């Protein structure tokens, strides 16, 4: 396969571990050059890994009937802009059972291929060793968030989760919230000031709330360090307004850390060991895409945090998280889901030839 990197690489193609990586053109999502790259590579099909509604299908040109979007659905029902885009595909690829269901409800048949994680990288390790490596205190209950600070209001529901943690911290002073994101204190495009809000909630940044090192966050923490981070958590919290998948949810559980998520969109099926905030404890939020996401109630999140606090050190939950996360092992996903999907696509090509793929995705390594 070849990749068009619409983020992380511009200019002439480079070789990345034997894979040609093309750069983007002038359009921020490489829409002006994606079809030309696919033609240059002589690709049989074009797979996009991005929101389907941003794809300008009119620019697919000769690949309009060879486009297989692998895309998230984080709304309910399926937003019309997504439905219109994927309607030109022979058969799109959804990355969650929730997304598969939303597409089916809209009359669109899809393949199901979830994201996978490297379970030999994200795996349990000694928690004290992990905390020592991350310079975290060892004698506290650590709630961790790994979520992008992007959008106003933030899709990751930072305000509700920080407020819920503040309620936990009032009762249990041996608690710390670590947020792996841009804190927003110094501004930033489409970010909110989480530092300011944490202080507004009566939390002290540097003691009650810790943020990722901002410089190293921008460079990117290497995977082994992310595994150390997940292992340092007592619980991983991500009660978003909506998730198309939520890779950190699986990464954390592969490392043996239980999670707190919302019982809506893709999060429902990814909570393998932990707690789910009920959908009845959230308010529908109609977004500009013309469908619902959900704003969680602070009290409901605080209740799940209290349950997690009472179960700190629960080895059964940590073992269950690891065991069930193995279903999302990257090699397992490749064999169980990707291979059958690609074989089926290949069977519909002339002479049933092996598929040569031009992937369109974000490459940040």
Can you walk through the features of this model?
- The structure is a single chain.
- The chain is α/β, with parallel strands linked by helices.
- It folds into two domains: 2-116 and 329-361, no CATH class; 127-326, Glycogen Phosphorylase B (Rossmann fold, 3-Layer(aba) Sandwich), CATH 3.40.50.
- The chain contains 13 helices and 16 strands.
- Strand 8 (141-146), helix 5 (158-171) and strand 9 (175-180) form a beta-alpha-beta unit.
- Helix 4 packs across helix 8.
- The mean pLDDT is 95.
Task: Show the helix and strand layout.
Blueprint: E1 2-10, E2 14-16, E3 19-24, H1 34-41, E4 45-49, E5 70-71, H2 80-86, E6 93-94, H3 97-105, E7 111-112, H4 127-133, E8 141-146, H5 158-171, E9 175-180, H6 194-200, E10 209-211, H7 214-219, H8 223-232, E11 235-238, H9 247-254, E12 259-262, H10 267-270, E13 274-277, E14 282-286, E15 292-296, H11 298-310, H12 315-325, H13 330-347, E16 357-361
Parallel strand pairs: 1-3, 1-16, 4-16, 5-6, 6-7, 8-9, 8-11, 9-10, 11-12, 12-13
Antiparallel strand pairs: 2-3, 14-15
Helix pairs in contact: 4-8, 5-11, 9-12
Q: Care to give the gist of this entry?
A:
By secondary structure, the chain is an alpha/beta fold. The protein folds into 2 domains: 2-116 and 329-361, no CATH class; 127-326, 3-Layer(aba) Sandwich (Rossmann fold), CATH 3.40.50.2000. The protein has helices spanning 34-41, 80-86, 97-105, 127-133, 158-171, 194-200, 214-219, 223-232, 247-254, 267-270, 298-310, 315-325, 330-347, and strands at residues 2-10, 14-16, 19-24, 45-49, 70-71, 93-94, 111-112, 141-146, 175-180, 209-211, 235-238, 259-262, 274-277, 282-286, 292-296, 357-361.
């Amino acid at each position: 396969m070849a990749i068009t990197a619409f983020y992380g690489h511009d200019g002439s193609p480079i070789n990345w571990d034997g894979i040609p990586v093309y750069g983007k053109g002038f359009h921020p999502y490489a829409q002006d050059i994606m079809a030309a790259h696919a033609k240059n590579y002589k690709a049989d099909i074009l797979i996009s890994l991005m929101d389907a509604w941003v794809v300008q299908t009119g620019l697919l040109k000769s690949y309009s009937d060879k486009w297989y979007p692998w895309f998230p659905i984080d709304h309910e029902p399926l937003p019309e802009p997504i439905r219109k885009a994927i309607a030109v595909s022979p058969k799109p690829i959804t990355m969650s059972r929730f997304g598969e269901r939303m597409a089916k409800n809209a009359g669109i048949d899809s393949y199901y291929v979830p994201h996978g994680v490297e379970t030999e990288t994200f795996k349990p390790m000694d928690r004290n060793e992990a905390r020592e490596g991350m310079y975290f205190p060892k004698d506290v209950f650590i709630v961790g968030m790994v979520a992008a600070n992007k959008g106003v209001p933030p899709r990751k529901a930072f305000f509700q989760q920080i407020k819920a943690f503040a309620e936990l911290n009032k009762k249990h002073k041996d608690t710390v919230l670590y947020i792996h994101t841009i804190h927003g204190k110094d501004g930033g495009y489409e970010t909110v000031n989480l530092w300011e809000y944490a202080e507004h909630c009566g939390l002290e940044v540097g003691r009650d709330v810790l943020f990722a090192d901002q410089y190293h966050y921008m460079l990117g923490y290497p995977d082994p360090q992310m595994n150390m981070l997940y292992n340092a958590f007592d619980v991983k919290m991500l009660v978003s307004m909506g998730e198309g998948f939520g890779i950190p949810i699986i990464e954390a559980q592969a490392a043996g850390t239980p999670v707190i998520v919302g019982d809506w969109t893709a999060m429902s099926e990814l909570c393998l060991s932990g707690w789910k905030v009920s959908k009845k404890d959230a308010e529908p939020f109609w977004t500009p895409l013309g469908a619902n996401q959900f704003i969680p109630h602070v009290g409901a999140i605080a209740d799940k945090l209290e349950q997690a606090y009472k179960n700190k050190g629960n080895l059964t939950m940590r073992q269950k998280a690891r065991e069930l996360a193995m279903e999302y092992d990257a090699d397992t996903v490749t064999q169980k889901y990707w291979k059958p999907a690609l074989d089926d696509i290949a069977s519909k090509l002339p002479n049933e030839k092996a598929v040569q793929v031009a992937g369109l995705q974000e490459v940040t390594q």
